[in-house]
């Protein structure tokens, strides 16, 4: 149990480090800037606590929604008892009611994940934290929810398969099983595949973030500002029409 908790904490911490580093690298690579290893590592440490705060805010919101749904469920349960009805926990009606609440919660979480798809990218790129990245992501994903939903469904499907395979193997894991090379190779291979999926998802989300900014008319000004130093505007006398001359550095 302790090993599982430590392993989960290890994955959580290094996932946040990877989020900061990968997002920084993809974002700067989009503009053609050279990405240095030290800069990427520095970005991972700089973004760590803002990412933690944003993650805590999202978990608090989701936990609050779960608590509200649980209170509604318990309220209905108490109401049926006050009205004198006998509640059969094995009844298909009771099981169906539980499924309705679970499905409702899952749909709410999925809807929020679609709206917050850019939250961690915003934390790294725009240096914000807490609730602000969630609001910013909500504005950026407007009109692009289908694409965001498709991305979450695609990567979530493959991640879910890997988690299910790993969990099934862990449930039968014994202390002496770590001495088996087959078991160790299985754990390493599934962890590697999961990290590759995460890498692909973070890169795709960052590119999707840039696309969303372009759709909302925010990217043109940034590109012009980014490459402004490479161009010089020269006013000529023929008709007073400004000409743009590209300056090539040797």
UniProtKB/TrEMBL annotation:
Key words, A-Z: Membrane, Transmembrane, Transmembrane helix
Top-level taxon of origin: Eukaryota
Keyword Membrane part of the UniProt annotation: yes
Segments crossing the lipid bilayer: 6-27, 48-73, 93-126, 147-168, 180-204
Name of this chain's protein: Uncharacterized protein
